[in-house]
Design a protein that fits this description.
This protein has 27 helices and 5 strands. It is mostly helical. It folds into 2 domains: 266 residues, no CATH class; 283 residues, no CATH class. Strands 2-1-3 form a 3-stranded antiparallel beta sheet. Strands 4-5 form a two-stranded antiparallel ribbon. α19 crosses α20. It is elongated and about 95 Å long.
Length: 616
Amino acid sequence: MGCPPVTRHEVEEVIKNFPQLPSLDEKFCLYNLPRVYLRCCKEHRFSMKHLLAFREVYADNIYENLTTLSEIWGRHAATIHKRWSRKYDVQKRKGYLKAVWPFISEIHRPDIEAAHQLKVGRLTEAPLEACLWPHLNLEDLAKAEPLIWMVNSRLQAFPSAFADVDHSFCTYALVNDLVPSYTEVSKDFQSHQLILRDKTCPCHYGELAENKEKDCGTDCNFNTNVDDAIIILQIQQRVYQFLVSICRQILQDVTKAGKDLIQDFEALEKPPVFELETGNLTSLEAAAIRAPYRVPVKIDIQRMVDMVKAKKHAAEDHLQSIREDPAYFEATLKNWSEHSVERYEPHLAEDGSRHWIKFKSWNWGDELIGKCIAGALYWSEMWRELLHRIRLFQDALDQKLDPKVDRVHRQLPEYIRKQLEGLLPYLIHFESDQVKLVVSSFLVAPGVRAHYMEDNISRVNSKDHKHISKVFDLLMALVSPEKSLGGLSSWGMLDQLERLRKKDPIVQKGITPHVAKLLSDLSVISECNRQVMLFQPWTGQILDDLAHRCDLGEITGAEFKSWEESVSGLIMRHMSPELVKLATPEEKRFHYPTHKRRTKEVVAQLQLAEINLANF
């Protein structure tokens, strides 16, 4: 349904009566978008003039705060950095943050915690501060450097450069319906979008445009739909407002002395640039803590190639080792059997506690072929094919790209689009398969399996280990059939799992060497997925197309299905009862005591193990 034309006079009338912008001193839920306009007009729907007025007021405020932040930072950068990073301790930083924003979230990823609290019934609705600004929280910002780097990065690019990033931080809350829906808003604007990308002034930032390419084959997602644009403008308005306020709070002694932070100080020619120090954090934690506080980077194809190539070589070495080393082969089998869901069943003890017991009859064929040998073959082929697809995409990007085609016509060249569409199905399916493997292995890992319920994990014995239920929620969300492509990514799950591992010894016990290896593989696939997501707006548009297809077979594509069938055929040729019998690790069939002194008996056992493996 189209929208009637609106005059400038009508927009100015709405702006004149526009309510005060959301204040950091009040809960953001008081400023739910429909309520804002019901207070200033008699209409009961979000009309075109209200949208235009909303865009103008918010865009002006964003750029006004950006200008103020730039002027303050250009005069006091060294002072702010010295006080915040060196002079203030954690508690003082938290006090300043709470003074500026009383309702700021307390913990890292408060949106995930809010979803957990809603599930267990401790909350009736999620706080919007946690849902829309999960990256602004006391746990992260109270560290020495993130706030400084965030100010630094926001001044190195226009707000348009952060539009996709700011929206991505609230994706989990949007997918899980933690944020009030604005569907009434979008019904009147189905044929319109707001232009956020590549806009460098408030008069054009978020301007309305009709979507004339709706049914064409070119990129139709270069602009932003009305729902998402409204959320982005609200997020950015508060981000820049918060940064200006915290800088003023740090320099409050200057203002109390009667000096103006801008007028009474001379601007530096080139403000200093401060690098973020991550200390002893792991690479995953370092990446997670950097992400919200840095200028959005471009896709790094060579990094993807290097990571996948290393994994490909490791998978080939693993496959070669289980073929040649009896001890390694036996250890691999035992690892898989120890982490196999099929080998355990829940048993309710007399005292009411739930334990795990092993099956007395165990089918080694399913375990051996289905997960160990077949898995080794599958991973070797998976990494090889993924490396091939990434290199094809890299070659396409290396071709000279006309900037006019890129930014004016907003069309992705067909040769690049073809390779991107060929790569995405592999990443989606490889990540999905690896997530399921991690979840099933973690839930039956020693030290964790006693907490695993037989059907849905609705309750656990978490009185002494309160974090284990949160881990279960994370894992179940990832393997849920309702999980959207835009929900919690495995990259986000890995970040959360690493933090919970440090807090709870039970979670630590679940990260066995076998699970750690699976997590390592998943982290590489997740990083590749994250890198591809940096190729905006085209990756987002292609993913939107995939998400709207009901049949999973449509998502895979013909090439992926052909590859999957060929790999399945390769594995199926190895599945025979005779082969299973030869590989069953019973009666010390593969016992390989290389650590013992070479006696006649030891040498005979070594030779027997090698013969048994060779026969297999």
